[in-house]
Specification:
By secondary structure, the chain is mainly α. It has 2 domains: 274 residues, no CATH class; 261 residues, no CATH class. The longest helix is centred in the first third of the chain and has 33 residues.
Length: 572
């Protein structure tokens, strides 16, 4: 078998190998996420995070208390649904993050068209690069759980059959969701004019983020055949692909009740439709839309006609905020990065809403709701601040340089106004709407005051030492580390948010403690604002982020000193 694989790889042309390596670098945007522009290291960190999730799930499966057969059956069904839903969520997020990478873009057409490279080679190379990332996610996310679940479900005698059914189901579910995204995007590009497609594509991308995460958080868990057969569940099962492939897994492993065989048939039919649809859309796009790609710009051009924009302070602040809004809406590069954070915020909001609506009566504020809103605020601020560093167009920076007619502190204040308008205000309004589900209302209003102060503190913390205009400074790749961000959030921020939520829950019922907390937060916020304002008065705006100057030495100083000491010792 290895010889056959090597023989097949040897028959692939040299252009395919070169293009595959280049396209693999572009599946995930290295300007935003690279580790010293090292794609193997980045993919290794990505796989490490998913493997950790798989290990945690496997340990939970293998180490469980003694249960009755009915309780064990219910636990296994819940675990199966959770694993399939998580795999489909990961595949969907990968498809949305790498939204346009599998379709031809302007750079591909203009650089590769004069070369003796066929469109078929370009298509196959892009498919191989995207498939490699998707395959890495499938293997990493099921590294340990893909062995633990078949062992618990089938035991030693049925282990091979259940193992094969599990891995086939995970691959098929991932392929289904990935091909569904490609089908929707490809036929939209074929049916719509290029300019209209660029606008609709942005909305589709954001809608896909929200749909995948929202479905993952709000879908029910049906852990018994009676729950599957319930009349209310039937309406949901007709449109839930995760339950379709849940039925496929149980059908292949031999444990699906005959009454639910129709769910498995829906999965087979849906998989065939999306695979054929993705294949047809890709072939047609590479044959028909390459000329459109060259003729039309990648950025969505502004619409004609009368435009009205709200005033958000001074004319300079209004201009910077509107420039940031247009950068986020017109540029796919920035939209994808910020949409990832916003989708998590949206998912947390949906989870809180589901918890609040699960009971018919209104109930008091809970620490989970307080922590959820704090996490939403933090993710929104951190997400928008990280996108600030990505330039919209380096060639256009000279426009902002030559029009710097105001002191630097005004531009830094405009950046702060942008964070408040685009991150803090939307999250605060969303939290205010969610808080209407809780009683009493005066406690909800008190929490919203705390949330606003936390948002202002996070804003000023993120702007410490920042002397640049949003989306107008070059970015040096290699600053991000996924594992540090993930473990930092999980180990540091999550426990702090949990403790603060518990403390706030107690303070809301004690007037003196609440006033002390508000006073402390206000004092911290004012101190940070004064510090940034003082720094901004002497700051100089910069547009090019230069790497630090590092003097490379031969390391001979320690050698010379040691040699000198030895010589003096011998002389003495």
């Amino acid at each position: 078998m290895p010889k056959l694989i090597c023989k097949l790889l040897g028959r692939l042309s040299l252009p395919f190998h070169v293009l595959y390596r280049q396209f693999l670098l572009r599946v995930i945007d290295l300007e935003a996420l690279s580790i010293q522009a090292d794609i193997p290291r980045f993919l290794g960190q990505f796989a490490g995070v998913l493997i950790m999730f798989s290990l945690i799930q496997a340990i939970g499966l293998l180490i469980h208390p003694v249960m009755t057969p009915a309780a064990l059956f219910s636990m296994v069904w819940r675990t199966e649904q959770s694993l399939i839903s998580s795999m489909m969520l990961a595949a969907g997020l990968i498809a949305v993050i790498s939204w346009d990478n599998i379709f031809p873009d302007r750079r591909d057409v203009m650089v590769l068209s004069p070369l003796p490279v066929t469109s078929r080679t370009i298509l196959f190379a892009k498919l191989a690069a995207s498939g490699a990332v998707l395959g890495l996610a499938v293997v990493s996310l099921n590294f340990a759980s893909g062995l633990a679940l078949p062992l618990v479900l089938g035991g030693v005698p049925r282990f091979p059959r259940v193992l094969a059914a599990y891995w086939f189901t995970m691959i098929a579910a991932s392929l289904f969701l990935y091909c569904a995204v490609l089908t929707a995007q490809g036929f939209t590009a074929l049916l719509l004019p290029r300019r209209l497609f660029l606008r609709v594509s942005a909305l589709l991308q954001l809608a896909a983020f929200g749909l995948f995460l929202g479905t993952y958080f709000i879908q029910p868990v049906l852990d018994t055949p009676a729950a599957l057969a319930d009349a209310e569940s039937q309406r949901f099962l007709h449109w839930s692909p995760s339950f379709w492939f849940f039925a496929v897994f149980n059908e292949l492993s031999g444990s699906l009740p005959p009454d639910f065989a129709w769910l498995a048939r829906r999965a087979w039919l849906g998989l065939a439709i999306v695979v054929c649809g993705a294949t047809a859309s890709l072939l047609l796009c590479y044959l028909r839309t390459m000329r459109k790609t060259v003729e039309e710009p990648d950025l969505v051009p502004g619409g004609r006609g009368w435009h009205w924009a709200p005033r958000l302070g001074s004319p300079l602040k209004t201009a910077i905020v509107l420039f940031s809004v247009r950068s986020l809406t017109r540029s796919r590069h920035h939209r994808v990065a910020f949409a990832f954070y916003l989708s998590i915020v949206f998912a947390i909001a949906l989870s809180s809403l589901k918890e609040a609506m699960s009971t018919p009566t209104l109930h008091p504020l809970t620490p989970d709701f307080l922590m959820s809103t704090l996490m939403m605020m933090c993710l929104a601020v951190v997400g928008l601040r990280s996108v600030f560093s990505l330039p919209i167009s380096l060639n256009a920076n000279w426009v902002l340089r030559v029009t710097q007619l105001y002191p630097s502190e005004n531009y830094i204040a405009a950046a702060r106004r942008t964070l408040i308008t685009l991150a803090i205000l939307p999250v605060w309004l969303c939290s205010a709407l969610l808080s209407l589900c809780f009683r009493p209302l005066h406690l909800s209003a008190a929490h919203l005051t705390v949330l606003a102060l936390v948002g202002f503190i996070l804003t000023d913390l993120s702007l410490i030492g920042v002397s640049k205009i949003p989306f107008a400074c070059s970015y040096l790749p290699g600053k991000s580390n996924i594992q540090y961000i993930f473990w930092g959030f999980l180990v540091i921020f999550f426990p702090i948010a949990k403790m603060f939520a518990n403390y706030e829950q107690r303070a809301l019922h004690l007037s003196f403690q609440y006033v002390s907390m508000i006073s402390a937060l206000a004092a911290v916020g004012i101190e940070l604002w004064v510090f940034n304002r003082h720094h901004a008065r002497s700051a100089v705006l910069y547009y090019e982020e230069l790497p630090p100057e590092v003097i490379t030495t031969l390391g001979l100083s320690s050698f010379n000193s040691s040699s000198l000491s030895i010589t003096s010792h011998r002389e003495s």
